[in-house]
Amino acid sequence: MGVLQRFEQRLEHAVSSAFARAFRSAVQPVEIAASITREIDHSTQILSRDRTLVPNAFTVELSDSDFDRLSPYGTRLSSELDKLIHEHVREQRFTLAGPVAIDFHKRADLPTGRFLVSGRASAQVSPASGVAPTDTMVGRAPVIVEVNGERHPVTEAGLVLGRGEEADLRINDPGISRKHAQIQLSTESGLLSVSVVDLGSTNGTSVDGRRVQQALLRDGSSIVIGTTTVVVRDPRLQEP
After folding, report:
1. What is the pTM of this model?
2. Which terminus in the chain has less CB density within 10 A, N or C?
């Protein structure tokens, strides 16, 4: 029995017949499940001979009517989709970029019975201290970086990005080395400059689409390590 059949069977046992009636003429849960597995299969990134990275964060866009029908069963459906994703990834020997997240949204221009699924790799990010920075800490920092929608301060001591315990900002991305890169701050003649240095990582560091060993950064510079994008934010930075 395949993952889709197991998914459908679990749902049949888990919810009442009202669930089936609600979806009789609308989006079927198994269609969403099949679309997610296709998104996984079509979005692979080869990290090495033995490791293939796939998305872990999924967005399901539904028509207004389908979204309203789905809402009462959303928690249970998300749980079963989570199981399906892990089963599919395990069977295909893929590597998830991080914890699975599934979000459902309304999209007004979709007719009943139509839906869209998109997936992306989204790594879990945490400071070495284990405590999220406060708005005050971020506001007082000379420079901040944005990772997956969260802001983190860069102090004068710099910021080591990596997957291991030695990193100041830990990013749980399989494509990132334990100590991948460091953001460094310096001041000369009263002008602040920021640079990034690759720390001998396995998969390298890119800045604004260019592979670098070391590079000066500006406000809005995008650093890509693994599948994660780190954006530098500070309008005071001079152009490199």
Report:
1. 0.71
2. N
